[in-house]
Design goal:
The complex is a heterodimer of chains A (about 230) and B (about 190).
Chain A: H1 2-7, H2 12-17, H3 29-36, H4 40-51, H5 66-98, H6 104-145, H7 148-156, H8 161-167, H9 173-185, H10 192-231
Chain B: E1 2-6, H1 10-23, E2 28-32, H2 35-45, E3 49-53, H3 54-61, E4 73-78, E5 89-95, H4 100-122, H5 129-139, H6 144-151, H7 155-169, H8 174-183
Parallel strand pairs in B: 1-2, 1-3, 3-4, 4-5
Classes of the chains: A mainly alpha (about 230), B alpha/beta (about 190).
Chain lengths: ~230, ~190
């Protein structure tokens, strides 16, 4: 496990999502997964998909339950909102406090832009947590049980994965803009290090989000569509 | 940008002319309808894009002038989808019976690509004065249509400018562009 992190430290938040904390000594990935009751194949697939952007063969996830995948996705959501966005927000606030009075108006604009982005991302995540994921888990239950009452329950949702697929929007546009604005157009500042840290966090969040979206689009949606088709909701 | 239309049928060349002008009025368009005139002038004109009837291009394939057109980007005017020419750089085909909207879309894309090429050639990341005008109007909350009306250009052209602005600045959203405009003192808060 230590070798994995030494090879790519950006995987740290990913393994945290599986409940793995630092201090794993010489234990192998297999040992840790076994002791924490983690599906090792799933763990390896997720880590690979994150480490190498071209690596996401749909078939690797085929025998994994949607429940397992959604559980991982929900934990990522939690990390985006409660860790990443919070950290960035704190740093941006600090930046506004520390910048010189002539520039404060401009830096506040950047803060507003970030807040706009934050709102957008939280709305997006809320929708997935409260509508899309519960629907998908119910879908899987109905698919496995083939019970009439489960299918009826599913129909009551009046939702479909196709609807999700068509409205699944990019939430990266603003983060892309924000990075560019900070890199290229920020007024001259003494707070170079703080700005660097804001940027590092934005880059990491963006990478994580893109990966997250890939798993939703390449794994979650195709699997769920197959299930929907087979029970004809 | 300079476009040459080499086509004997007057209706066809005039039709193309007016479609291109609607999309981007500032483009220089030259119409030629005779082979002799074409042979004589092609080198001086040196068009960025050549719209040419496929019979005429066929005729050109056998002539000594072939090599002069080696690097010219060609749009074929044809009634047959499968026509192909190996010796020329054909970037698009326009079918004679195509709907206006499809022709417009094709031409729009070709022009945008060409503008992009020009921009890459001058390799400057800075936006042009015209683009600054557009950023200001976007930042003030105008729609593409309103911007087009104010600057007396077509909405298509506004779209093209916006694509180029995004490419240069790395900013996609309206609120991002607004912040850019304020940070660079293009507009007041």
């Amino acid at each position: 496990m230590a070798d994995l992190i030494l090879m790519n430290y950006q995987l740290l938040p990913v393994i945290n999502r599986f409940g793995i904390q630092l201090g794993f000594g010489e234990k192998t990935i297999e040992q840790i997964c076994n002791s924490k009751n983690i599906d090792i194949n799933f763990f390896v697939e997720i880590v690979n998909a994150f480490h190498n952007e071209d690596y996401l063969p749909e078939k690797h996830f085929q025998n994994k339950s949607l429940n397992l995948i959604i559980n991982y996705l929900e934990k990522s959501h939690d990390y985006f909102i409660n860790v990443k966005l919070k950290n960035i927000e704190q740093m941006v606030d600090e930046f506004v406090k520390k910048c010189c009075p002539e520039e404060v108006q401009k830096i506040e604009l950047i803060r507003n832009f970030f807040n706009e982005y934050k709102k957008e991302l939280i709305t997006h995540i809320d929708h997935e947590n409260t509508v899309v994921y519960p629907y998908t888990m119910l879908l899987e239950r109905a698919f496995i049980s083939q019970k009439k009452e489960d299918v009826e329950l599913l129909k009551k949702y009046k939702y479909s994965i196709n609807k999700y697929a068509s409205e699944h929007s990019d939430v990266e546009e603003k983060i892309f803009d924000l990075k560019n604005i900070i890199i290229k157009y920020i007024p001259e500042t003494q707070e170079t290090d703080l700005c660097n840290h804001i940027l590092f966090d934005l880059f990491e969040l963006e990478k994580d989000l893109i990966n997250h979206q890939r798993i939703e689009e390449k794994v979650l949606i195709p699997k769920a569509i197959k299930m929907e088709n087979s029970i004809s909701v | 940008m300079k476009i040459l239309i080499f086509e004997k049928r007057h209706i066809v060349s005039k039709g193309l002319y007016s479609i291109i002008k609607e999309i981007e009025n500032s483009i220089e368009i030259i119409l030629i309808d005779s082979f002799i005139q074409f042979q004589k002038n092609i080198q001086d004109i040196a068009p960025d894009l050549l719209f040419i009837n496929h019979n005429l291009l066929e005729k050109l394939s056998d002539s000594a002038n072939k090599s002069k057109l080696q690097h010219t980007r060609i749009i074929l005017i044809t009634n047959n989808h499968s026509t192909s020419f190996n010796d020329f750089l054909i970037i698009e085909k326009i079918l004679i019976n195509e709907r206006k909207i499809d022709i417009e879309e094709k031409i729009q894309n070709i022009i945008t690509d060409n503008f992009d090429n020009e921009n890459e050639q001058n390799n400057s990341g800075e936006i042009t004065e015209r683009e600054v005008d557009i950023v200001k109007l976007i930042a003030k909350g105008n729609t593409n249509q309103k911007i087009a009306d104010q600057l007396f250009i077509s909405p298509h052209t506004v779209t093209t400018h916006r694509k180029n602005i995004t490419k240069k600045l790395g900013i996609k959203t309206v609120s991002g562009l607004t912040i850019y405009a304020i940070l660079n003192n293009l507009i007041e808060i």
